[in-house]
């Protein structure tokens, strides 16, 4: 786990450095670099769509046709799901607000307003950190684990994958704030 974290962090660091260095040519990338970034981004989006699709498929398959091994009911017997109107609702509000703030910052950037760009990105990072903390609390106070039937697996895989995306996105935005 530690080696994977170190390699991922190193890869991100070198990638940010290379993209930043390549962009210093008059402030623009070459056509070849732009084409490579576009293709890379497209492949990234396709892979992300399939990753989330597979997790949603597992959830819907298991919840709409519960197996006899889990009692034929969803959620399985003995599992108490989280109240969707508690932390999950607050996290949804935080993420929607965070999206609004990053959009605000993006529009401010397009209009050349540096102060509002920074404000929008700072609020986005704040809300993303709050989301991550609340997701940690949700995991810590959960009455089930990833090993508690397909419900636990589907819950922790889907929310974990989403949480990792929020963390990585937060890192990307922090790097942009520092630049």
Please describe what this structure looks like.
With 179 residues, the protein is mostly helical. The protein has a domain at 80-179: Cytochrome c oxidase, subunit III, four-helix bundle (Four Helix Bundle (Hemerythrin (Met), subunit A)), CATH 1.20.120. 76% of the residues lie in helices and 0% in strands. The longest helix has 34 residues, at 31-64. The radius of gyration is 20 Å and the shape is elongated. It starts with a helix and ends with a helix. The model has no long low-confidence stretch (mean pLDDT 91). Belongs to the cytochrome c oxidase subunit 3 family.
CATH topology title of the domain at 80-179 = Four Helix Bundle (Hemerythrin (Met), subunit A)
Strand content: under 5%
CATH superfamily heading of the domain at 80-179: Cytochrome c oxidase, subunit III, four-helix bundle
What is the N-to-C succession of helices and strands?
Answer: HHHHH
């Amino acid at each position: 786990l530690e080696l994977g974290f170190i390699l991922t962090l190193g890869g991100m660091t070198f990638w940010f450095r290379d993209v930043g260095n390549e962009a210093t040519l008059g402030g623009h990338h070459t056509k070849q670099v732009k084409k490579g970034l576009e293709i890379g981004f497209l492949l990234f989006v396709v892979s992300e769509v399939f990753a989330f699709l597979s997790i949603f498929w597992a959830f819907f398959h298991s919840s709409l046709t519960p197996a006899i091994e889990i009692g034929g009911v969803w959620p399985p017997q003995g599992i108490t799901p989280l109240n969707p109107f508690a932390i999950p609702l607050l996290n949804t509000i935080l993420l929607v607000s965070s999206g609004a703030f990053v959009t605000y910052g993006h529009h401010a950037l397009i209009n050349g307003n540096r102060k509002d760009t920074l404000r929008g990105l700072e609020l986005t990072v704040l809300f993303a950190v709050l989301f991550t903390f609340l997701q940690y609390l949700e995991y810590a106070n959960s009455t089930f684990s990833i090993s508690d039937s397909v419900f636990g697996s589907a819950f922790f895989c889907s929310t974990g994958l989403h949480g990792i995306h929020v963390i990585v996105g937060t890192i990307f935005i922090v790097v942009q704030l520092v630049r």
